[in-house]
Description:
It comes from Pseudoprimorskyibacter insulae. This protein is mainly α. It has helices at about 15-30, 35-40, 45-55, 60-70, 85-95. Helix 1 (about 15-30) packs across helix 3 (about 45-55).
Amino acid sequence: MKLKRKDNPFQPIGDETEHYWLAQRMAKATGTDLVGAMEDKAINQEDWAEMVHRCQGCEWTCGCKDWLNIPTDGARDVPTTCVNHRRFEQLRKTYKAEDQ
């Protein structure tokens, strides 16, 4: 798995478990149905691991946590500062969570 970092190739990698949950929370906050995407094979375990790994190298972690902690009643747009922005947007087009 290759991690491409354009901004800072020397950015320390964050804790895997923490970033797993941040990516999960981002999916939920944006109304992205990861389970549906996995069931339809639009994303597999390797894809998901790559998204978590990209999250681990993100420089916006503190901003992400703050953004995720803002209370909301519905799904929000994926922040452009998220390193997985394009992937979440792509998945969300087809896999919107039903409870959103």
